[in-house]
Structures are given as C-alpha cells and as structure tokens.
Specification:
Elements (H helix, E strand, L loop, with lengths): L3 E10 L2 E11 L4 E5 L6 H9 L6 E6 L2 E2 L10 E4 L11 H6 L9 H15 L14 H13 L5 E5 L7 H18 L2 E5 L3 H7 L2 E6 L2 E6 L1 H6 L4 H7 L4
Parallel strand pairs: 3-8, 3-9, 6-7, 7-8
Antiparallel strand pairs: 1-2, 1-4, 4-5, 9-10
Helix pairs in contact: 3-4
The structure holds adenosine-5'-diphosphate and magnesium ion.
Length: about 240
C-alpha cells in the first residue's frame, strides 16, 4: 500500500502563504517527482505529507484514511534528506537500527532487516564504521538504508543526491531506479535537476509559487507542456 491523496492542501507560515490548495493523487508504487524553482514549496509539500508540517487547510489521506492528525512517526512513511542526518557518534549499524529499536521489534528481525538493506545497498563492509569514516555517496546509501529498514508504504526523498558529485549522482540515480523497481514502494522525490526528473519519474509534478502548473508523465510534459514555464523547466522546445 502507499496511495496518497491531497485535497486542497494549504500551508501558510504566519502571513506567508506557501501552498495554495494542492490537489494531487499518487498511486501505490508510483515514482512521483516534484520539480520547480527554489522557494516554490517543494520541501514544504513533502514535509506536509510526512507530517513534519501541519497543513493550514485541506486533507491528506494515506491508503484512504485521513491522516491530518496522525503523527509523522505513525504514518508509515520514511523521509530521506539531502543532508543525510546520520548520528555521527553511532556506527552505520546503529544508525540503521535507530528508529526500529523503540518499536517492539525483536532483535533478530532488526538484524535481518539491516542485513537485507545493507546487501541491497552494498554497504555491508561499512556496518561497523561511523558516518565520518564514509564518503558522501556511502553516507547517502546509509540514509536510504535507514528508510528501507522501516519498510515504509512510501519513501519521501528531498533532493537526496544534490550533495554528490556529478558522476556519483548518475550512478546513485540508476541505483534508486533499480531500488524502486525492486521494492515496488511509492516514492515521492524532490529535485531541481531536470535529468533526474525525466529519468526517474512515472509522473512529474511541476510546481510554481505554491501551485501545481502541470502533472504528467515525462513524455507528456515534454511533448505537450501546458505553458512556457513548464516547457522551460522541462527543457522542452515547445
Ligand atoms: P523549495 O523546497 O521549493 O525550495 P520550500 O518549501 O523550502 O521551497 O519553501 C517555500 C517557501 O516557504 C519559501 O518562501 C520559504 O522561505 C518558506 N518557508 C519554508 N519553511 C518555512 C518556515 N518554517 N517558516 C517560514 N517560512 C518558511
Ligand atoms: Mg527544498
């Protein structure tokens, strides 16, 4: 499961209106990418879905249940940030276990999930190292691993590759696509990188100043952009 529906979601910070009524339905297993210029509200939208921001208005439903008042930790989602957010004093293994240990999950199950995620992400050799002893790419894998072990209904990724150099970004992008195919989980992915959006997305949501300009497959947006803004953002000649 991992069906997410937003109905007229509004978010304001005091007098600043950031999201102006977002209507969006994301299907189970879909890879949806949010694009748009800096400051248009991509992170706010993602954080609102995650439960890290409370919507000022509207409804958010996960698998048919309104979750407006459900705390972030109980929504069955996992968020991956650009800045890794790993605990520097803990080993990779402990970082992966964190968040599972305050559930009632048996230790054997925790160990099994860590082993599986480590295998998938090829970070087995680093399990006993600390984040400071890893490269940026390895740290980002650990951050993704920390999401995987929770077996979320959806992954929310906020510019997860933007701290990596170009080459590593390319290879990690391909791994993310493979991971999505393998996990068949819903993924919502924020980026301002057109190539990432075009190659990863089942559908792209183009945002501008807190509103959705267009939603469509990469090909639809490329071939039939709704306006010049979308065309410019997607790199379409239309
Ligand atoms: P993006 O991720 O697309 O760059 P953000 O969602 O981070 O955009 O920000 C959208 C707008 O909301 C910006 O104008 C930003 O300054 C504002 N904003 C975001 N978070 C807060 C906050 N906690 N308090 C006040 N304004 C905020
Ligand atoms: Mg952002």
């Amino acid at each position: 499961m991992g069906h997410i529906k937003l109905t007229n979601v509004i978010k304001s910070f005091g007098a600043i209106d950031v999201l102006h009524g977002i209507n969006l339905e994301i299907n189970d297993g879909e890879f949806v990418v949010f694009v748009g210029p800096s400051g248009c509200g991509k992170s706010t939208l993602l954080r609102t879905i995650a439960g890290l921001e409370k919507p000022t208005g509207g409804d958010l439903a996960i698998d048919g249940k309104i979750v407006n008042d459900v705390p972030a930790a109980d929504r069955g989602l996992a968020m991956v940030f650009q800045s890794y957010a790993l605990y520097p004093h803990m080993s990779v293994r402990q970082n992966l276990a964190f968040g599972l240990e305050n559930t009632r999950m048996p230790q054997a199950e925790i160990a099994e999930r860590i082993a599986e995620a480590a295998r998938m992400l090829e970070i087995e050799p680093y399990l006993d190292r600390r984040p400071g002893q890893l490269s940026g790419g390895q740290r980002q894998r650990v951050a993704i691993g920390r999401a995987i072990v929770r077996r979320p209904v959806a992954f929310l990724l906020d510019e997860p590759l933007s701290n990596l150099d170009a080459e590593l970004r390319g290879s990690t992008r391909a791994e993310l696509a493979a991971l999505h195919a393998r996990l068949s989980a819903t993924m919502i992915y924020v980026t301002h990188d057109q190539i990432e959006a075009m190659t990863l997305a089942d559908r792209i949501v183009v945002l501008r100043a807190g509103r959705i300009e267009q939603i469509g497959t990469p090909l639809e947006l490329y071939n039939r952009p709704a306006n010049r803004f979308v065309a410019g953002f997607i790199g379409s000649p239309h």
